[in-house]
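lol forgot to send this yesterday, sorry. struct tokens for the thing we talked abt
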């Protein structure tokens, strides 16, 4: 397999690809990613193909899908090759059936995983236990996989307290618990690097903002969408950033795309968040919108 140089990789939880078509296609034209990992497509494979197949092919993308009606769903788009496609995570549990949460393929010589990790809902719930078991199975797959790899997607874990707007606000929530973070660290221990945080170790960087309570405009978010690069791929990262512009305006997803440029940075090393946050963050304690 020939490695392709100068590749832009993006991951984006679109929170319903059907709702996001007016945003997705112009964004592809603007940012020109070579590989795109999508999550929460919420469409069966035939419906996704009917909706977007022609438009993606016109833009030079092949695509691999693992979808289901209404819930979950992942996709992988590539214009640098799409080989050895695999859906699901071998050995992972279902809830109760196997959910559409993972698709992988080799793109430009790199094994790329598009992942929508289970949310976990409430600590100690059955869904939380399912999340941890699913992550353990993912680790095993990655350990057995090729050395050149990228793990991309909505990981539903904030790696550290710096990745949430206020750790105290999340004290009793999922996404920040020690077992979840330990599961993520077990994957990173295989040699995977959090390329955005490695590039911007002290910056305020979020990828998700709740729709409610003006959280986006106040920049009260979380960084739960990640791109992890293996030891051999991480040094190729020349720019790593959050496309916050895609979260603005009418009809956005509640997530912003994460973008990593390999080998060359066509827009330069443009900063951790594009454009910069519109607000510096909370000056007083803020409760999560769902908190009572």
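and heres what i got for the seq, position by position
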């Amino acid at each position: 397999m020939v490695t392709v140089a100068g590749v832009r990789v993006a991951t984006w939880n679109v929170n319903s690809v059907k709702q996001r078509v007016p945003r997705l296609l112009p964004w592809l034209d603007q940012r020109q990613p070579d590989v795109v990992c999508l999550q929460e497509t919420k469409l069966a494979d035939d419906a996704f193909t009917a909706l977007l197949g022609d438009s993606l092919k016109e833009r030079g993308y092949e695509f691999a899908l693992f979808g289901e009606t209404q819930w979950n769903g992942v996709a992988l788009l590539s214009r640098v090759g799409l080989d050895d496609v695999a859906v699901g995570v071998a050995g992972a549990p279902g809830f109760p059936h196997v959910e559409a949460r993972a698709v992988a393929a080799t793109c430009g010589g790199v094994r790329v995983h598009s992942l929508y990790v289970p949310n976990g809902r409430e600590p100690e719930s059955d869904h939380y236990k399912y999340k941890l078991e699913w992550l353990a199975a993912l680790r095993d797959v990655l350990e057995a996989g090729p050395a050149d790899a990228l793990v991309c997607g909505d990981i539903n874990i904030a790696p550290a307290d710096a990745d949430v707007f206020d750790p105290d606000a999340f004290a009793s929530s999922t996404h920040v618990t020690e077992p979840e973070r330990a599961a993520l660290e077990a994957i990173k221990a295989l040699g995977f690097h959090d390329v955005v945080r490695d590039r911007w170790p002290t910056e305020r960087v979020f990828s998700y903002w709740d729709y409610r309570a003006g959280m986006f405009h106040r920049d009260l978010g979380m960084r739960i969408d990640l791109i992890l690069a293996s030891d051999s791929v991480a040094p190729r990262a020349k720019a790593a950033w959050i496309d916050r512009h895609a979260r603005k305006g009418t009809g956005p997803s509640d997530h912003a795309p994460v973008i990593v440029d390999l080998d060359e940075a066509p827009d330069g090393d443009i900063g951790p968040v594009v454009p910069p946050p519109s607000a510096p963050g909370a000056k007083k304690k803020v409760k999560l919108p769902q908190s009572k």
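The CA atoms of residues 6 and 264 lie 5 Å apart. anyway ping me if u want another try
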